[in-house]
Design brief:
This protein is about 45% helix and about 15% strand. The protein is an alpha/beta fold and about 500 residues long. Bound molecules: zinc ion.
């Protein structure tokens, strides 16, 4: 932890040096998916962004408690307070138990995340499993005087809160502008003001997901789960809260208001948000027909896709952009990412097989470790890390092409840099032939080629040619180099 990590805080709108509350412990909360359909790119980006942060904080020596929630109740269709519960609707349409729907899509989400190389969080709490905590939280807000009951539902009193605090501080909005742009109440509404949001909703008779509370049989408002579960597992104050930019308003704005109202203080020290993904320059949306699920990317089964793309290609593509920039998906861009990743993987595989020369290095090597650390410390600048790895790849290729030499010490350092930054921190899974489980297979090919080398030295051309030809038939590419040989599959 002798390094200073700088992260951009959405709340203060500037980069800040990260100073945890209780080092070496770090508490980190990221809004997870509402599980009523298959995961798509909008799920992949925050998962990958905060996976990098999780990995990097751990690398810096912090003990991270990473909480990523599962929304399985209370996320209504139209906005936070209206329409049918998304999961209940799916359950009704498919004639399933809501929890059956949740489990089905959660299993698929986990599978997709694993394919994308996203590490599981430390705790993955479900909103439906924390109804008691949410009711307690609502009670605290009521006791503090920032909420009111209306027809069995509890609403947050935004105007009153705004008198004492600032509603809109995260999103940079102010209450007067919001009031102007929010539709008028029709008089039938239970809310005192259109900006008020539900903390607890009374369930309509047909509503199947419902729990008893002091006010009515009902369910919590969507924003409540993150306030309740974040503070339950990370404390009344914790370090980092993350999510996609689309959650800044109203979700995170409401979370700040709820926590400040209930606890009398700010809960979150650093707010972090990843930017959005567009597809061919357009926003993703079911109505636009460009809503591509992760599974469709992996299988290439969506009509907008020219081919399937591996999960690692998608991860690499996302990491090629800084998390605060937008990313636009297109077949061209993904194909370029696929090639770029293949180049890097190839360099990695060559590096792992490279033999050092006895002499000092005959190539110029930069201090890649230092450069990559500096890039990640600078608000997780993954594209810069990738550019340094490309630069190092050129040096590797110079040596494998026989145009340069590398010393034992430099070779070990370069291997360590690639293993740390490419594999451990960027989480780019290198293709099968370099995984440790296939060490035996690599050893066997090397052994065959050593026999071939010896045969050549003895002018036993028959043996030498047979080994080369048979390996070629199996798909191996064998190249003789100055120091011996190299191969790829
Ligand atoms: Zn949330």
């Amino acid at each position: 932890m002798d390094r200073e990590l700088t992260i951009y805080n959405t709340l203060t709108r500037r980069k800040e040096i990260f100073k945890p509350l209780h080092a070496p412990h770090v508490g980190m909360y990221v809004c997870g998916p509402t599980v009523y359909g298959d995961g798509h790119l909008g799920h992949a980006r925050p998962a990958i962004t905060f996976d990098i942060l999780y990995r990097y904080l751990t690398h810096l020596g912090y003990k991270v408690r990473y909480v990523r929630n599962i929304t399985d109740v209370g996320h209504l269709e139209h906005d936070a307070d209206e329409g049918e519960d998304k999961i209940a609707k799916k359950a009704r349409l498919e004639q399933k138990e809501p929890m059956e729907v949740v489990q089905y899509y959660l299993n698929r989400y986990h599978k997709a995340m694993e394919a994308l190389g996203v590490l599981p969080p430390s705790i993955e709490p479900h909103a439906s499993g924390h109804i008691i905590e949410q009711i307690d939280f609502v009670k605290k807000i009521l006791d503090a005087g920032y909420a009111y009951e209306s027809e069995g539902s509890i609403y947050f009193d935004v105007k009153k809160y705004n008198k004492d605090h600032h509603y809109g501080k995260l999103s940079g909005r102010n209450i007067d502008d919001l009031l102007e742009t929010t539709r008028e109440l029709d008089g039938q509404n239970e809310k005192h003001c259109a900006l008020d949001f539900a903390l607890w909703k009374k369930a309509q008779p047909e509503h199947i997901m419902r729990w008893p509370s002091p006010w009515s049989d009902g369910f919590p408002g969507w924003h409540m789960e993150c306030s309740a579960m974040g503070t339950k597992y990370l404390g009344e104050e914790f370090d980092i809260h993350g999510g996609g930019m689309d959650l800044i308003f109203p979700h995170h704005e409401c979370e700040i208001a709820q926590s400040t109202a209930a606890l009398g203080k700010e809960t979150v020290h650093y707010w972090m948000h990843n930017n959005m993904i567009t597809i061919n320059g357009q926003k993703m949306g079911k109505s636009l027909g460009n809503f591509i699920t992760l599974d469709e990317f992996f299988t290439g089964s969506h009509k907008l896709l020219a081919q399937p793309y591996t999960a690692m290609t998608i991860r690499f593509f996302i990491l090629q952009a800084h998390y605060r920039s937008t990313v636009d998906f297109s077949n061209e861009a993904l194909q370029a990412a696929e090639k770029g990743l293949a180049r890097l993987t190839d360099a990695y595989n060559r590096l792992m097989r490279l033999k050092a020369s006895k002499e000092t290095s005959g190539i110029e090597l930069k201090n890649y470790r230092e450069l990559c650390e500096a890039a990640l410390c600078d608000d997780l600048n993954t594209p810069i890390v990738i550019s340094h790895l490309y630069d190092a790849s050129k040096a590797i290729n110079t040596v494998t092409d026989g145009k340069g030499t590398i010393s034992e010490a430099d070779l070990e350092e370069l291997k360590s840099v690639f293993n740390l930054f490419m594999v451990d921190l960027l989480g780019l899974r290198v293709s099968e032939d370099s995984s440790s489980s296939s060490d035996a297979y690599k050893g066997a090919v090397d052994l065959l080629l050593d026999i071939r080398k010896a045969a050549k030295a003895n002018k036993d051309w028959a043996t030498s040619d047979k080994i080369r030809d048979e390996l070629a038939k199996l798909g191996f590419n064998v190249k003789d180099t100055k120091d011996g040989f190299e191969w790829s599959l």
